[in-house]
Design brief:
This protein has nine helices and 13 strands. With 284 residues, it is an alpha/beta fold. The strands form three sheets. A seven-stranded mixed sheet has the order 8-7-6-9-10-13-12, with helices on both faces. The protein starts with 7 loop residues before the first strand and ends with a strand.
Length: 284
């Protein structure tokens, strides 16, 4: 991953506001630190927000869009499996029962970081009222090719009305943000009372992170924060959320072990909650 030559800024811990850090991961050309007070792992100093947005819009550009289109079927399948584990199906059923048969009362969902809109299309086909947020060129693809309502600016700049959505989704997004606390506060604001938030992110308290350390596959330049279950839950609770379910998956990455051993570790990771990726279901 290319290393930025642009401006960066040293920030206090986004979880506890401490300015006391110790080295955590020493990667090739960049590093992560760990907050001495709360344990949140983060890039510090960080690239500025404007530079990050430019990377996804301009530097990655068409390459990112091509990558998303090529892999969207696999990504969609992974998202649906994760949502199933987190109890999305039961929540969906309850919302549609409450809405009845009138389409204008169908439940609403916001997918933040929706890429090409494959998940939104899937949900729209099931009767959901759908909206997306995507800052990369994939937003234009989702609007033009799939006729989706996808906004091309960060969530905090859109100013959705308070209490707009029944469900908000964010898969592999929060680790890319300069200010995840601000993001969570805004998600909480735009959710209806009793609404649900499903968030997916790498798990630095998982086995793979422990095993590979600074070679862990999620310790990459574009990730500004690496959450553990503890730090993510603490930040979500601080924003007002009630945690309803946590699931993890991914015991060993493909190609790092024989298939028989990978199957054992993958099953154990789900059962004992030390997987490489986690999904949290939370309620407002």
């Amino acid at each position: 991953m290319p290393v930025s030559s642009g401006e960066s800024k040293t920030l206090p811990c986004n979880l506890c506001n401490s300015s006391s850090f110790k080295p955590a991961l020493d990667c090739e050309g960049f590093s992560f630190v760990r907050c001495k007070q709360c344990g949140l792992v983060q890039r510090n100093p960080q690239p500025l927000k404007e530079e990050i947005i430019a990377r996804y819009r301009d530097i990655y550009g068409k390459d990112y869009l091509a990558y998303e289109i090529e892999n969207e079927a696999a990504f969609l399948n992974l998202q649906l499996l994760a949502l199933k584990d987190a109890g999305f199906s039961q929540t969906e059923k309850a919302l549609f029962l409450r809405a009845g048969s009138e389409p204008e009362k169908a439940p609403s969902v916001l997918d933040i970081g929706c890429a090409t809109g494959s998940l939104l299309t899937h949900l729209r086909d099931k009767g959901w009222r759908v909206t997306g947020v995507e800052i990369s060129p994939a937003a234009e693809y989702a609007r033009n090719e799939r006729r989706l309502d996808v906004r091309n600016i960060p969530l905090e700049e859109i100013n959705f009305a308070a209490g707009t959505f029944d469900i908000v989704l964010a898969s592999h997004l929060i680790e890319h943000l300069n200010n995840p606390r601000s993001f969570l506060n805004e998600v909480y604001r735009v959710l209806k009372d009793g609404g649900y938030f499903f968030i997916t992110t790498p798990n630095i308290s998982g086995f793979q992170a422990y095993l590979f350390k600074d070679r862990w596959r999620s310790a990459i330049f574009d990730h500004l924060y690496l959450f553990s279950k503890t730090t993510l839950i603490k930040m979500m609770k601080d924003s007002g959320f009630t945690i309803k379910r946590i699931r993890t998956w991914g015991g060993l990455a493909a190609g790092t072990a024989p298939s028989w051993l990978k199957k054992i570790f993958d099953k154990a990771a789900k059962r004992f909650h030390f997987g490489d990726v986690m999904i949290v279901k939370a309620k407002k």
